[in-house]
Automatic annotation (TrEMBL):
<protein>
    <submittedName>
        <fullName>Haloacid dehalogenase-like hydrolase</fullName>
    </submittedName>
</protein>
<keyword id="KW-0378">Hydrolase</keyword>
<dbReference type="InterPro" id="IPR023214">
    <property type="entry name" value="HAD_sf"/>
</dbReference>
<dbReference type="InterPro" id="IPR036412">
    <property type="entry name" value="HAD-like_sf"/>
</dbReference>
<dbReference type="GO" id="GO:0016787">
    <property type="term" value="F:hydrolase activity"/>
</dbReference>
């Protein structure tokens, strides 16, 4: 009957969007370019194309990383130097790992997740991420020039039709497309598959799952936890994650996840729901009666997180509330990514 915790990384734990930040740092107008690809990726997900993985922006950007001569060493060094955790995350990671088995399932590149684990003390063996072997693929000068021209073309014409033509009719026929095909993003269905792998390997029960995420790549994982009567938390989430969750949290401090994990461990899903009802009537009393760690209690009374059960009739209100905090914590550019 052991409970277990699975979390997305970027959003619930860190304020980074590592791939966006890499593009923004190394590529000209890279943040804008990444956002264009992210929007294209979101549209493809919403079209429900068979076998298409949410989070494929991390694949689509790769030919352009090669065109601008990025290496795995660049990704590693940048990631090590640019890890920014949400307030409370270090304490939450340590606390929850002592409560129950804990896992990170992230769409982020493995280079970033490994760097984050080194910095936070999280067990890298308990992580799933998008494996990238960037250096294994070569790019000749002619294709490099072609991709640099394509890059500028996309910045000038970001329409869905233009991007579809470029990826389906041009890049798909270039040797570098093998790099795209080699990468399997851990997003969407990939995150659900990771959870099922965790359950199978450890003989867990699905109803003992607590999951937290914030974006379109978390939808299937949140739905899995929700449908199996576990805890599905959208943490500073967008409309995609809130619609799939049973709990929506808006907070600039993630220590509230430690409180919920503590309650879930001892009292299950019903106990968490009872806490949320109590919290919305008496925040001070609810925290004090459910957490014996003075530091966590003090921090939460200062940050005053919003914790709501997801009601489909109030989705828009929850999205508006979450968006304000999401923009504040992660910045508007990252916040607007799917």
């Amino acid at each position: 009957m052991d409970k277990f915790y699975v979390t997305d990384c970027e959003g619930p734990l860190s304020i980074n969007d590592n791939a966006y930040e890499i593009a923004d740092f190394f590529l000209p107008d890279g943040g804008e370019f990444f956002s264009i690809l992210s929007n294209y990726d979101d549209i493809l997900v919403e079209k429900q194309i068979p076998n298409y993985m949410a989070g494929s922006t991390l694949r689509l950007i790769l030919p352009f990383f090669k065109a601008y001569a990025l290496t795995e060493r660049d990704l590693i060094e940048f990631s090590e130097d640019h890890i920014h955790m949400i307030d409370g995350a270090y304490t939450t990671i340590k606390y929850v790992q002592q409560l129950m088995p804990s896992y990170i399932v992230s769409t982020s590149y493995n280079q970033y997740i490994e760097a984050l684990c080194t910095k936070t003390g999280f067990n890298y063996n308990n992580t799933y991420s998008t494996i990238l072997n960037l250096d294994e693929y070569e790019l000749d000068m002619n294709d490099q020039d072609k991709l640099l021209d394509i890059y500028q073309n996309i910045l000038l014409d970001s329409s869905f039709e233009n991007l579809n033509h470029i990826f389906d009719d041009i890049i798909s026929k270039m040797p570098i497309n093998k790099l795209i095909e080699s990468v399997k993003p851990v997003g969407g269905i990939g995150k659900r598959d990771a959870i099922e792998d965790i359950i199978k390997k450890n003989n867990y029960k699905p109803e003992n799952l607590m999951y937290s995420g914030d974006s379109i790549t978390d939808v299937e994982a949140l739905e899995y936890a929700n449908e199996n009567d576990g805890i599905a938390i959208s943490f500073n989430g967008n409309i995609h994650s809130i619609s799939a969750a049973n709990i929506s949290i808006a907070s600039d401090n993630n220590l509230i996840l430690a409180v919920i994990a503590n309650i879930f461990k001892d009292n299950g899903t019903t106990g968490v729901y009872e806490f949320i009802y109590e919290y919305n009537n008496d925040p001070l009393g609810a925290i004090l009666s459910n957490m014996d760690d003075n530091y966590i209690t003090q921090q939460l009374l200062l940050s005053k997180p919003s914790i709501k059960l997801v009601d489909e009739n109030k989705i828009n209100d929850l999205v508006d509330e979450s968006k304000q905090t999401r923009n504040k914590v992660r910045g508007v550019n990252i916040s607007n990514l799917g």
